[in-house]
Prior knowledge:
Layout: H1 21-31, E1 38-39, H2 56-62, H3 70-76, H4 92-103, H5 108-111, E2 115-121, H6 122-137, E3 139-140, E4 143-144, E5 147-151, H7 156-163, E6 168-172, H8 183-192, E7 198-202, H9 215-227, E8 231-236, H10 246-249, H11 251-258, E9 263-268, H12 270-273, E10 280-286, H13 293-311, H14 318-327, H15 330-360, H16 368-372, E11 377-379, H17 384-394, E12 396-397, E13 403-405, H18 414-427
Parallel strand pairs: 1-12, 5-6, 5-7, 7-8, 8-9
Antiparallel strand pairs: 2-10, 3-4, 9-10, 11-13
Amino acid sequence: MAPVTTTSFPAEAVPQAPEDPLFGLMRACKADNSPDKVDLGIGAYRDDNAKPWVLPVVKKLTFCATHATQADEILRNDPDLNHEYLPIAGLASFTSKAAELLVGTSSPALSEKRVSSVQTISGTGAVHLGALFLAKFYKINGQSSTVYLSNPTWANHNQIFSNVGLPIATYPYFSKETKGLDIEGMKRALADAPERSIILLHACAHNPTGVDPTPEQWREIADVMAAKKHFPFFDCAYQGFASGDLDRDASAIRFFIEQGFELLIAQSFAKNFGLYGERAGCFHYVSPPSPDAASVTTRVASQLAILQRSEISNPPIYGAKIASTVLNDKALFAEWQENLRTMSGRIIAMRTALKAKLDELKTPGNWNHITDQIGMFSFTGLTEAQVAKLRSEYHVYMTKNGRISMAGLNTKNVDYFAKAVDKVVRET
Ligand SMILES: Cc1ncc(COP(=O)(O)O)c(C=O)c1O
């Protein structure tokens, strides 16, 4: 047989794709051996020593030896702990509590059986499953509806929705002038969008801006969306991590459900449980109140199961088991809430420290947004040239759009970072 000399995948068909910018940044940062290095790239929590933090409540469940406690016993002695397949929709004790966490334990949506939940490959998998479901089943006059994403948004939203063939558009979100929410621009765009468009909303701690609507602004957004019959898709990657209060961080979602919207929710447990690599997440469909709501929900669940089966067959067990154990145990749940307050509190303290130092240095500009914004990220307003200089001269790693992960700051590097910012702002 003649040797194969040509590929079926020439460069015209399969061009070299650029590296994912965020993971590329992570790689470059890892390779930098400077003792001054400040890693403000990836959105993962770090403690005051810039180290990953296994939540104490999670550690109890997963590390035996020196940390053996009553809770540790729970997981290790669980007679159901094995490596069998989960059901297609995942671990029911996990997904049911995950739904309660979002909609609230006393929500009529639960008692009326209007919620259908599927365990997914973390938040990304949940956004993907929702996108796939919409691409297949949400048609207006036989056509796919456009998905409106905030400008800016988590970069992966663009490729997740376009990979399933849904058209994409954006709505204004961040005002460069105020470094806050462009509520008028957002409402105008939603009002101008064709009826029944899909609107992707960040439930809390907007990535990358750290800017969330106020309760009053959420009401205004809901009013416009109801008038245009738009379809809300909430991405909730930071519940409890933003304010330290699980209920408060879910309030926008609960408000939309109270208003009678039919909606989708993608839920990640990466940040709030520190279970990044375990890929624990959920996707939820909530039907609007109606006499046949329960049967609608059952029908939707049956189709979600088919999509899930063809994509991942069934989800991974380990992270779900950890989260489920905590969510189903009163004492562990209380401890988790304490851990959430530790993480959100440290981030808020870093916002205060950074702003105070920039004020002290009299760095040109107004830095109120550092403390006004919430959650893992701050959109600093630094330009691409300033970001490049921070990297080349000060070993500070952050995304080109000026976003910093607040969790990368700590009591040892916040002054260094503020001084570096001060220098580049004055020089560039
Ligand atoms: C807005 C948003 N959605 C979803 C995710 C999904 O994360 P994961 O797949 O790790 O749960 C992230 C993570 O950074 C995010 O910021």
